[in-house]
Please model this.
Amino acid sequence: MSIDIAKKVLEEWFSRRGLRLEYEGDRELVLIEGNNKIYVRISSEEFPTESYIIDELSATMKDRLKYNKAYIAFPRNARGLINGKLFRSHWVGVYLYDIANTLGDPDKAVEELIPSIPIQLQQGVGEGIERRISEIERELDDLKGSVEKLDVKSLMRDVSELKERLSKIENIVNDLANKVSKLESMGITTTITPSGGRESNVANELPDFLSNNPWIEVLKRRGGGNG
Model:
């Protein structure tokens, strides 16, 4: 179904009711009714799926706050597929148009199936939002430019080199830990005596029948003195 024909049918119907056309897009009409600005999105799907209807509603909601009323115009055959609760909850109305009926009564070519719930626009809010969106877009562009300037490859090389060095250090530490563990398991540890000398635990390991013999202590002291 031609969108151009549908737009013509809708424009004539609105004109008969005193609405003035302010803007016409590929699939959009913006009309003025007194102090109200009305947005109409035109669909050409005669049997729209639920996902298609949701997409159309989402597209309409993007600019909903700019207009007092908003509608989506579907071909008349889509009547039974329209979820009234869904549209009312989003304050969006529905028109049904019938191209074939233009040959008969033009006033019956369009039907307001679901009235749009009007909202009161606050002056300057739309302009403020648009300015903020423009600022955010500029900030995103600046951020994108900063990221593009970064030497990512150089950073990746540095990180890779640091990881390699860390891996080598971990291997050295693990090797030392293994060696210390082996020495401890063999009983080869060194202690510092009060006199400042070093005494091996291996040398002190005597049989039980000699360990408490007082003559052994005497001989050890003499040996230490002669040394």
Observations:
- The chain has seven helices and eight strands.
- Confidence is low (pLDDT under 50) at residues 198-203.
